[in-house]
Amino acid sequence: MNVGLTLKNIRIALYGQELVAIDTHIASGEILTVMGPSGSGKSSLFAFLAGFLDPVFQASGNVLVDGVDVTKNPAHQRQLGLLFQDPLLFPHMDVAGNLTFALPAEIKGKAPRRERIEAALIEAGLEGFGSRDPYTLSGGQKARVALMRTLLSEPKALLLDEPFSKLDTELRGQMRELVFGTAKRMKLPVVLVTHDEADATAAGGAIIRLPL
Amino acid sequence: MSFLPRLGPPLTIALLTIPVFAGLIGTILPAFGYLPALGGNHFSKLPFIMLFNEPGIWRSALLSLATGLAASFIALMIVMLFLAAASAKTLSRISAILSPLLSVPHAAAAFGLAFLIAPTGMIARMISPELTGWQTPPDILIVNDALGLTLTAGLIAKELPFLLLIALAALPQIPVRQSRQISASLGYGRVMGFIITVWPRLYSQLRLGVFAVIAFSTSVVDVAMILGPQTPATLSVRLVGWMNDPDLSMRFVAAAGALMQLGVTMIAFIIWLGLEQTGAKLRTNLAAQGLRLPHDKALRGVGIGAMLFPAIALFGGLITLAIWSVSGLWQFPDAVPSSLTLTGWYGALPRLTAPLMTTLQLGITASLIAAVLAILCLMREDETRLSRKFLQRHSLAIIYLPLLVPQAAFLFGLQFLFISLQIDGMFLSLLAAHLVFVTPYVFLSLSDPWRVMDRRYLSVAATLGKTPWQCFFTVRGPMLLKAVLSAIALGFAVSAAQYLATVLVGAGRLTTITTEAVALSSGGNRRVIGIYAFVQMLLPTIAFAFAAFIPAYLWRNRRGLSGH
């Protein structure tokens, strides 16, 4: 049972004032959109799920990935994939280096690892871009590399923090389709944090609105 | 995350505070007559009675106080005027010129200035005999003048780059452009607008650094030995003389004098607090009267000129040093030597090797250890992620501690301690003494870039399954490589420049280029001084060149890192 991401009785407060109260389950391939104005606590929810909430917040509740409680795990042992509004490609690695960095160590051997990277580049429409400096990529290319990097780490769920807000309108639509489509195809539960109504509409799943 | 970062803060705090406090106690006891190793078995006032009977002791104390305060005050005023006057472009250009000067050891800078302005110095040679008619050097005392004017000038020249660079580090946290626009739209001139709207906020960020400058300037030894008055010398110089006196009972006087030095610096702090009050009142009054100084072109020129002039003087002095090190016969008033020769270098090299090796070993180990400690502390700061402001403020005070206490006040005691433990003159003891001064600079240099790095890169790495240590070695370390290497280079420069700590703890068995160069200063052989001072300024330059070259080479195809 419980395949997907469970947010069990999560409450986050700051200085005694409750910001977030959520109790829900996101099944594989489904998207939960959390909306709210800035300061509403959606970023703290995001940080709590990913495992880096600042201790000044008081948080309770549990995060379950496929039924396994990961609340006590540090960020690197949660198997959650993150996307931010900036692509945050590591500037000191080339494109292939960024992707290899994400590949789990269980995939062994130089050749199989390289094959995975090549396949990911082709999937992102970036064949032959492996040795490029990330700085030289266009905004859309960077966003696609960032998505591929997240997926290569084989996450069990995706956490998206306003991932489209810095793209221009045309690109935004394309990236939405790509990200949501990929998540459905890979049967990943998704939490999308945003203040853009169009994101919520495109996601097409449940919506939770946080009050200010 | 793991065990090591937990050790960072306690280790660093211990490393910085134990030597200072143990050293202070070690100075206080003999100052009141107690030092069993030298036969002082009971407490007495005798060391102080002897101290106050030293001829000219009050004049020495006054010289230390006056030159140190004047230098700090003038340097700060120049920095204020300069920042007020300079456009963004001038600012970045001049700071690019000044930053290498920060790493020039104090002693080398002092020698450079001496070689420039002495009666036989470069300036006199350039204008003689055409303008002055001098065929022989004029008989006037410029270097070592009795009022300490040259000493003050030398301290100003050396403190300007330091104050400017910490001001530049603090400026981005203040909305300078908006403040300027608002004050300009209200009819204020550039300088007055800056002083009223930006300076108070900037000064509160510089304050600890300014106090460090005052503590240093009122107690400096090497610069005062080279440029300062000699009859009598400043208090700090006389202390070191008593410390090295063959008559061991003078050690008690030296300890009492070190406490007097502490008092002099404290008085300087108190006077400075008064100056701060007066300055703030003055500024409030001017602002209340609406004094706008809209036509301040001349004032702006003064500000920029006053910043540029010492820099040019230092560069001129350093070039003069370099020429002297290879000069053959160079008679007054010739502007250039009649021949160039490497004879001096051939003669000096065999004697240079041992101090050079010690300088390198000390500088490299001390800066690497300091860098590891600074990184562990900063990692721990991230880990606890408590309110950053709180941590920053309180860690800063401890970091500054060794820079706020006059060196003699605790180094004397530390030396007594090391002697009684029979560990003076050992490499590890000297290393510990250097770390007290190197660690604060390395930490201060690294902490800003560390704290402003976008933390989301680390979040990404963590969610990709990387442990905190993997994050450090694969993401944070490489992205901050330049900052880490610059901090190490600065640490090396600080270590290489240490005079008093090396002389005392090295106990004559371990000497560095700096202690050798200062020891040569009384001899007056310009060729040999030129060689040692040249090596002194070469070492930190090489360190900074490495710090710039390695990231530039590694990231030559990574514009995200090399672009700015």
Structural commentary:
The complex is a heterodimer of chains A (212) and B (564). Chain A has six helices and nine strands. Chain A has 212 residues and is of the alpha/beta class. In chain A, the strands form two sheets. Chain A has a five-stranded parallel sheet with strand order 6-7-8-3-9, with helices on both faces. Chain A has a four-stranded antiparallel sheet with strand order 2-1-4-5, covered by helices on one side. In chain A, helix 2 packs parallel to helix 4. Chain A is globular, with a radius of gyration of 17 Å. Chain B is mainly alpha-helical and 564 residues long. The longest helix of chain B has 42 residues. The mean pLDDT of chain B is 84.
Shape of chain A: globular
Number of H/I helices of chain A: 6
Task: Give the helices and strands of chain B as they follow along the chain.
Answer: HHHHHHHHHHHHHHHHHHHHHHHHH
Helix content of chain B: over 70%
Q: How many β-strand stretches of chain B?
A: 0
**N-to-C span of chain A:** 35 Å
Report the radius of gyration of chain A as a whole number of Å: 17 Å
Strand content of chain B: under 5%
Pairing-aware structural class of the strands and helices of chain A? alpha/beta
Number of strands of chain A: 9
Q: Describe the biggest sheet of chain B?
A: none
